[in-house]
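Discussion board: Methods & Data

I've been asked by a reviewer to show the raw model output for two of the constructs in my manuscript, not just the figures. I'm not sure how much to include, so I'm pasting the format here to get opinions. Each protein appears as its amino acid sequence followed by a line of discrete structure tokens. Is this the kind of thing reviewers expect to see in a supplement, or should I convert it first? Here is construct A:
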Amino acid sequence: MNLIPLILAVPLCGAFCTALCGKRGKLANWIALAAELAVLLMAAGTFPPLADGLDSCRFLLVGEPGLAFAADGFRRVWLVLIAFAFAMSGLMCPEYLAHSHAQARYQTATLLTLCGTLGVFLAADFFTLFVCFELMSLSSWLWVLHEETPGAKYAADTYLAVAVLGGLVLLLGIFLLHIGFGGEPSFAMMRQLDYTGAPRALRYLTGGLMLFGFAAKAGLFPLHFWLPMAHPVAPAPSSALLSGVLTKCGVLGMLLLSTTLFQNDFRWGEVVLSLGVVTMALGAALALCSVDLKRTLACSSVSQIGFIAVGVGLISLLGTENALAVRGTVLHMMNHTLIKLVLFLAAGVFAMCRGTLDLNELRGAGRGNLPLLLAFLTGAWSVAGIPGGSGYLSKTMLHESIVEYTELVKGSGGSIVTELHIVEWLFLISGGLTLAYMAKLFLTLFVAEPAKGGKPVRMGAATLTALAVPSAALWALGLAPHPLTDRLLDLAQPVLTGAVLEHPLHYYSLANLTGGGISLAIGAAVYFCIVRRLLRRDGELVNVVPAWCDVERKIYRPLFLRLLPGAAGLVCRMVDCSLDGAVVLLRRTVFCNLGKPKREVAGVRLTDTLGRLCDRIVLLLNRTVRRGDPIEHRSFVYIFAEREREIVASSRLITVSLSFGMLLACAGLVATLLYLLV
């Protein structure tokens, strides 16, 4: 049985039901949770027929190409992981949103986002991916806006601007792919085609536009700025999904480009690798300096997306020997989803109980809460790459891929060996910074002496479950690398590459432990020498990042508000004038009779008769019942006549507006038809 249509339909039906809940927020929370658990059960049910090959389905909108979906091994793994993340987030919602407004709206946005996210990972081609990508982006905007504070509105504006701009640029790239390369086949077919003979300029232009759209959602430098803005203002359950799941939709697009249009492409791999290195180091540095809990975790997400982008770049650079890079990239994507699910939900517990995310005010707040401590420690342990955690496995594979490519270049006499050594050291240093800022968070929240008068941090059974289950999954992936983790990667790898590992990777060999040890030593040195000495004053953490480092407020927004309107103003004015001229022309020609009042207006005799009748009734009342207190009024004949004239004028205006709107809609349809035909 093909479960794809049902998996996509359940969250849509759930969103319709939650939208009808109105102010009954508790009911909306439980409906959403039921829908998320149902999707999780169905996603888990897709695993038994894995050996049967590829399940697929297609929905026709108006005609071809329609929306095409497929479920191979890679997609099935992610199907379960996405449904699991939304279900765990949904478990926390009843407690977290208990005193929040617009709970039904939040859950409607959540289920629409779930449907869009599932559609992105199940998409069989770029057209379907784009449609689901936009559904996911626009519905998740309501998460950022949910609190409706000035900061939330500002962050929501930024998020929406990035989402819309990224979507438009992505759509332009898909158009070029469709026009320039003879249609748009499925991803499975694209991996079998050879694009090296295609015009290089067109191929790079298409890839660059699509990379921009995907990088905007992934949070890749220089489009990373929305993550530190959106995460602190969004509710914690949605922050966990924004960081852990939605950013992976952008990474998925980059991964698909690297394994289809740019297979074995050296220049493409260099660009993605460079962007990944910058994002990796920059995010770690920003997280180290932040004094806000969720902002620190958001900057950490930027850094971890950089680690993943390094793997995506290496997939193209290593060519037919990229099996290790593919496995490391996919595993780090999975790890980051679970890690940020645990850490952001834990941050939500602090926000619920203390009403603040300032680390100085949360000092020692977690002391005495052992389950919360263990859950947070699990996420911190894994993301820092400490042996035993699942993050150690993925970072080991990525590091080995860098070493492998360095040796490959050295053997071929390449001239970028020095640069690759720099990349390797930046990789190790960024891993060390990860340990430093996670140690800062853990020691501040759970070890430092608590401030007096602080309310104890407590959580309900559902929230505890939402933290414990993904924490257990992280330990299972980390402690059972060969029986569990490698088997999951064996399912996902063949979809992305035809390369195979010559032998299983020895994760705990001396060489791999040495690389991990160097990174941990750097992290310990940074924490004791920088965090404790330079980032603390009088026992409190301080933010040393200058205000001018805010690229969104200092560069992007002024550039958009000052330069872009000047360039686009002339075009907008020309369009405005042309539309005004079209309106005047149509009013004087096609719609000339609609604006003139007709001599015979239906209803005049009726209103006159009703008015005289009402006047006589009032006169009779004044002479009998109301003789001592007569009713003062205007003649109902004039009152009804005025109302009749207002109704006629409004109906004429509506008729003209609808007619003109229909004319514009027809013009748009004709233009679309001409575009499709040409």
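Construct B, same format:
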Amino acid sequence: MARNKFDVDETLETPFSLKHFKRATIYLKDHIGAMILTIALALGSSIVSLTGPLILKDAMDVTIPEGNVKRLVFQSVLFALTIVVSIFLNVTRSRVMTKVAQKIIYDMRRDIFSHLQRLPFQYFDDRPHGKILVRVVNYPNNVANTLTNGIINLIMDLINLVIIAFYMFVFIDAKLSLIAISGLPIFAIFLWIIKPIQRKTWQSFSNKNSNLTAYLHESIDGTTISQVFAREEENAQIFDRLSENYRKAWLKAALCSNLVWVAVENLTTWVTAGFYLIGVIFFHDTVSLGTFIAMGNYTTKFWQPISNLANIYNDFINTIAYLERIFELLDEPVVIESKPHAPELPPITGTVDFKDVTFSYDQRINVLEHITFHVNPGESVALVGPTGAGKSTIVNLISRFYEVTGGAVCIDGQDVRDVDLHSMREQMGIMLQDSFIFSGTIKDNIRYGKLDATDEEIQTACVQACADDFISAFEDGYDTEVNERGSRLSQGQKQLLSFARTLIADPKILVLDEATSSIDAKTEVLVQKAMNNLLKGRTSFVIAHRLSTIKNCDKIMFISNKGITECGTHEELLAKRGNYYKLYTSQMVTH
């Protein structure tokens, strides 16, 4: 059963902790030098910028009263220079961190995608693919910005606060400085109250974003079916509902985030007004005009990092929601993988043994129970039986796409669990009912089975797969561009290309899972000829509802009641007049 649909919010299985954020900083380990350089640039910019109010104070209290024009011009140029230098250092810092952020996005997406490649089929069966897609494409962008600019800005704004406070208390006036920072306790209480609300709203937004992406992905994949059943209006209504949920969730999350900014701006305004009011009433006789102006400038500068920290806090809360999703995916266990130091499977002959195999998808209900059989190298075995009997499960266990619940599956006498997984699968060829065609040329699609294949090898494989004639009929031949899923090809042509792709890999064990189910009668002769070429000299397992395609197999096994109920050649099973006989004769009558 699917864990959720496109309109069902995901529930996190583990609560977020700061360990997640600490774990995310591993992506910074290769960029420590750039981070230190960025901090140095930001620190230099801060020091240069904070020199400006001191120059202004001296000009107001000393230079202007003395009427020293020459010194005033010098101070004006120096003041302008502090602004230019500060901007230059900030721009340089921004360029460095942008490069670092893009590298982190690349590294994070690479890790997510690599992990996805290793996850079992069950993971993809249980989730809308759009909800997986958003974790790879969208979330790393937000996380990378927080890990780079967010952390640097956090460090620098904290340093700025210390430096500004030092300038205020040491160079200006300690009593006035206390007034300037008096709003900090109020701001801390506000953050403590709003933090859980923010996290909840951004988690909700993350869910609605994921739901919308999932439905969009599903709708694009199912466009043909939607148009066939005239579902455009209903689909538009569903999309409108999901979009409205997305909009409402974003507005609610943005409102919570903006409340922090509003709180900072209001505190800045009230503290600055209070500073001037109290200063004029109580300190007008003891504090100079230059000191008042400089302190007002520093008060604004002091609360600017506070405002920045509030924004960083918002980003941090948002990032938490994304990190939770990313790490939930990265923590998904790789159920099927090679054991540590597992030996590579040497070139195989193709012997396959099932030894008392039992299997269950959910650890509750067995799909297969106590199955035992032996297949010699080069033998072709057909698996037939009712839908859901476990035919595809058997071939998936041979390829170790799932782990047996009991017993063992062996290739050339070796348990598939005890050898390197890659070395085993690269010696197997698997064709599914959906003959997936990638976007690109026909040549590229066939070469997918053997990346270093020459043009001659590709054409030879296509001749054997009976695909060369229709490929050569295209204007560009083997260089003909095909769309994703091969929309410009017929179902029969796609399956013949899949045969060629499998042939060129030259597997020793071949699995055809309903690979001929959608063939029209006109193409069946070609497909049967291609199949015969494909099966020649290979151990093969063929699942087919069309029994005419498997009559020549060396062995036919009828799968039902969680096991093998009949086994023999086509003629032997017909003579038994059992389940296979009934199935075969019913098809003959139908045709």
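Answer (T.O., handling editor elsewhere):
This is acceptable in a supplement if you add a one-line summary per construct. For B, something like: Residues 232-283 form the longest helix (52 residues).
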